């Protein structure tokens, strides 16, 4: 997946960051902070998960991907992005609260 996967990872990361921030007040960075940090975490971990689950695209796979979206690719982007957003948001929130 190319740009569609990146957008899915960014959105899932922002959602994951907000969920983590709201679930535990110690990690909350506010709405914008959770979204930004979550999107960055979603992008990073989403890319790692994509590479680990066979993100290398051959010419035949690229041709098939133009015909429609791959459900496995979408799911790995959603899961990796959401988890990455939640994890990075929790880490940054914990560091922020520890330093405050």
Structural class: mainly alpha
How many distinct helices? 4
Biggest sheet features: none
The parts where pLDDT drops under 50 for at least 5 residues are none
Helix content: over 70%
Number of strands: 0
Beta-strand residue fraction: under 5%
Model description:
There is one protein chain. The chain is mainly α and 100 residues long. Helices cover 82% and strands 0% of the residues. The protein has helices at residues 3-23, 30-52, 59-67, 71-99. The longest helix is centred in the last third of the chain and has 29 residues, at 71-99. The chain is elongated, with a radius of gyration of 15 Å.
Give short descriptive properties of this protein.
mainly alpha, elongated, 100 residues
Topology record:
Elements: H1 3-23, H2 30-52, H3 59-67, H4 71-99
Short overview:
The protein is mostly helical and 100 residues long. The protein has helices at 3-23, 30-52, 59-67, 71-99. It is built from 4 helices and no strands.
